[in-house]
Amino acid sequence: MDVKKFDTMDPVMLMSIVNMKIRDEFGSLDSLVKYYDIDKDKLVARLANAGFDYLPDANQFR
Questions:
Q1: Distance CA 26, CA 40 (A)
Q2: Is 59 helix (H, G, I), strand (E, B) or coil?
Q3: Residue in 5, 34, 39, 8 with CA at minimum distance from that of residue 22
Q4: What is the pLDDT of residues 3-59, one digit of tens each?
Q5: Residue ranges of the domains in the chain?
Q6: Does the pTM exceed 0.85?
Q7: 19 bridge partner residues
């Protein structure tokens, strides 16, 4: 799945993929959004609208 298409993805799948990529490949949300050249605020808002908040201390969405 292509994270760049986050605006049309199922939000539960998106949250899972983003968390996995942060954990396994990027180490931070900032690195992930920079690599994929996507708007961090839009990604965070998309997931927040689905009930998932980004927790910086845990470095993941929950």
A1: 14
A2: coil
A3: 34
A4: 889 999 999 999 999 999 999 999 999 999 999 999 999 999 999 999 999 999 999
A5: 3-52
A6: yes
A7: none
